[in-house]
Amino acid sequence: EYTDRDITMWLNTSFEQTPVDDLLDAAKQGTALLDPGLEPYIQLLANNPDLIRFVAFDTDTAATGFVTNVIIVREKMLFDLSALELAQATVNVMPDSIQVRQEPAEYELEGFDSVAHAQWLIETLVGDVVSLVYIIEDGDYMYSITFSTIPDRVDFDQAQAELALSTLVIDRTAEEEAED
């Protein structure tokens, strides 16, 4: 079981969690982390300290050249959109370098009214990366849960992602306290 900020989720024991506050501290200090792949997240976090809610990496995948990871982002919604509408809007503005592998569709997840799932392929310097994206509407917030992996592991990692999602708990009291 892994917990950070308002998120609790069970992941395979090969995952290691990176506390978001540690990333924020590194961003504030301008500290270069050992993993240069984290740099975009650190900059994003430095500019938006409440945006990233959870980060974990699967250490068993390090030898593949790309470390499977899960990142959860929370954003307060200013417009009344369903998770599916947000997923479709995201696809509509994606650059050509990102290919949609699975169009956004509704996804059933116990405890949440509006959930969407999509899958896209991103070409990177280390090779192709597949993002398994789940968007959850929860009150005034949208949570984007992204499991990134390599194409050869998609089926296995999608099964693992869906198992992990079934254990997802969002602590709504933490959200309310943060707003006060």
Strand content: 35-45%
Task: Report low-confidence residues grouped into runs of 5 or more.
Answer: none
Helix-strand topology string = EEEHHEEHEEEEHEH
**Gyration radius, in Å:** 16 Å
Tally of helical runs: 5
Mean pLDDT: 86
Structural class from helices and strands? Answer: alpha+beta
**Distance between the first and last residues' Cα:** 28 Å
Tell me what you see in this structure.
27% of the residues lie in helices and 37% in strands. It is built from five helices and ten strands. A seven-stranded antiparallel beta sheet has the order 3-4-5-9-8-7-6, with helices on both faces. The chain has a three-stranded antiparallel beta sheet with strand order 1-2-10, with no helix packed on it. It has helices spanning 20-29, 39-47, 83-92, 154-165, 172-179; strands at residues 2-4, 7-9, 15-17, 52-58, 69-76, 98-106, 114-124, 127-138, 141-149, 169-170. Strand 1 (2-4) and strand 2 form a beta hairpin. By secondary structure, the protein is of the alpha+beta class. It is globular, with a radius of gyration of 16 Å.
Index terms:
single chain, 180 residues, alpha+beta, seven-stranded antiparallel sheet, three-stranded antiparallel sheet, 5 helices, 10 strands, globular
Element layout with pairings:
Layout: E1 2-4, E2 7-9, E3 15-17, H1 20-29, H2 39-47, E4 52-58, E5 69-76, H3 83-92, E6 98-106, E7 114-124, E8 127-138, E9 141-149, H4 154-165, E10 169-170, H5 172-179
Antiparallel strand pairs: 1-2, 2-10, 3-4, 4-5, 5-9, 6-7, 7-8, 8-9
Helix pairs in contact: 1-2
